[in-house]
Design brief:
The chain is mainly beta and 176 residues long. The chain contains two helices and eleven strands, in the order βββββααββββββ. The radius of gyration is 17 Å and the shape is globular.
Length: 176
C-alpha cells in the first residue's frame, strides 16, 4: 500500500501574517496496472519561472503527467515497491508512460521495460529504502540520503530489495 503524503502549504493572510493556508493529504496520485508497485504523488507545480508566490489555489488538481510544464517545475514523491521480475517481464513500458503523456520518452529495446529519458533537469533525494538507478550500461545502488542530479539521460528505477523505496523528485523544464 502506498504511503500517504502530508502536504503543508504556507502563505500570508489578508493582514500579511505568515500562516499555513493548507494542511492536507496530497491528492494528486497516480497508480496504474501498467506499472504495478509504483505510486506517483504530485505535491506542487508551477508553470513559470520565476515562480508566482502567494498561490492559494491548488496547482496539482489536473491529471498527473510525467513532464513539468514548459518553463515550470513539478515536485513529487514516488514510491517504488519491490519488483517482481516475472511480472516485470510481461509489462509494456510504452503503454505505462502513455498514461502520463510520455510514451515517446521510452527507450525502445532497453534492458528494463521502463527505461526512459525526460526533457527535464531532475533533482532527486532517496528518502527511504534503496533502489538501483539503471543507466544504459551500468546500475548504481542508491540508499536513503543519496541524491541524483538527472540531466536528461536514459534511466530506469529498479527496486530489487524487500522494502518500498521513497524518492522525492523536483523536475525542472529544460532544453537540450
Amino acid at each position: 500500500m502506498a504511503r500517504k503524503i502530508r502536504r503543508v502549504v504556507t502563505g500570508h493572510d489578508d493582514k500579511g501574517v505568515a500562516t499555513v493556508i493548507s494542511d492536507t493529504e496530497a491528492s494528486c496520485i497516480l497508480q496504474r496496472p501498467n506499472r504495478p508497485g509504483v505510486t506517483l504523488t504530485n505535491l506542487w507545480m508551477n508553470t513559470e519561472t520565476p515562480a508566482q508566490m502567494e498561490r492559494h489555489d491548488d496547482p496539482v488538481t489536473g491529471p498527473l503527467i510525467l513532464h513539468p510544464p514548459g518553463n515550470g517545475s513539478v515536485f513529487r514523491i514516488v514510491q517504488f515497491d519491490p519488483e517482481n521480475p516475472d511480472v516485470l517481464a510481461k509489462l509494456d513500458g510504452k503503454s505505462a508512460f502513455a498514461e502520463m503523456g510520455a510514451a515517446a520518452q521510452i527507450v525502445e529495446n532497453a534492458r528494463h521495460p521502463f527505461m526512459h529519458r525526460t526533457d527535464s533537469l531532475d533533482y532527486s533525494v532517496v528518502l527511504s529504502g534503496e533502489i538501483y538507478m539503471m543507466m544504459d550500461d551500468e546500475d548504481y545502488l542508491l540508499k536513503a540520503g543519496d541524491t541524483v542530479i538527472q540531466q536528461g539521460t536514459n534511466h530506469a528505477w529498479s527496486n530489487r530489495g524487500t522494502e518500498p523505496c521513497l524518492i522525492a523528485f523536483i523536475l525542472i523544464d529544460a532544453v537540450k
